[in-house]
Specification:
Low-confidence stretches: none
Mean pLDDT: 91
Number of domains: 1
CATH architecture: 3-Layer(aba) Sandwich
Radius of gyration: 16 Å
Shape: globular
Distance between the termini: 11 Å
CATH class: Alpha Beta
CATH topology: Rossmann fold
CATH superfamily: P-loop containing nucleotide triphosphate hydrolases
Oligomer: single chain
């Protein structure tokens, strides 16, 4: 593998990013999921090292002090997420390309460091109303957390134009095919 390329996909919560990323990983063996570090508690069924590297706030701070992150953010109050440099290297060492599924600021931060070696794709919901419905249908949100996520989505949407590509996810299969085509072109 010639270059250390990185694929970065981001979206407001509920825009369909995770589904698209899973489909890409299943279809493209040259991609590998970059597992993020997080200080939040594991949700039901999540495993350390597969879904996230779950860390205490103190462990996370130690990694910050060691300059171990390609990027990190406090995404929600007191909840940190980050991309470990060692995780990117692990994937490159396996002759694959990291598929990084992170928030808007983290995505732009990685793009700033890796420039042309990073492809950034923003998955946009058709509207905030559609996003509200999708988040409500999950059944995992309280009214307060729903309002927080929608407020964050409004903020994140303001950065969409800073990404290499914007894909509107109105119809999942169409959005997936568009993203897949962008990734294939970038890696060719």
């Amino acid at each position: 593998m010639a270059a250390h390329k990185i694929i970065i996909i981001t979206a407001p919560s509920g825009a369909g990013k995770t589904t698209i990323v899973r489909k890409l990983l299943a279809a493209m063996p040259q991609l590998a999921f970059s597992v993020s570090a997080a200080t939040r508690e594991a949700r039901n069924g999540e495993q350390h090292g597969r879904d996230y590297y779950f860390m205490s706030p103190d462990e996370f701070q130690q990694k910050i002090d060691e300059n171990a992150f390609a990027e990190y953010e406090m995404v929600y109050a007191g909840k940190y997420y980050g991309t470990l440099k060692s995780e990117l290297q692990r994937i490159w060492d396996n002759d694959q390309y990291p598929m990084v599924d992170i928030d808007v600021k983290g995505a732009l931060s990685i793009k700033e460091k890796y420039h042309q070696e990073a492809l950034t794709i923003f998955i946009q919901p058709p509207s905030l109303d559609a996003l509200r419905v999708r988040l409500s249908e999950r059944g995992t949100e309280t009214q307060a957390s729903l309002d927080e996520r929608l407020g964050k989505a409004r903020y994140e949407l303001s950065f969409a134009r800073e990404f290499d590509h914007i894909v509107v996810n109105e119809e999942l299969e169409k959005a997936y095919q568009e993203v897949k085509s962008l990734v294939e072109h970038f890696l060719s």
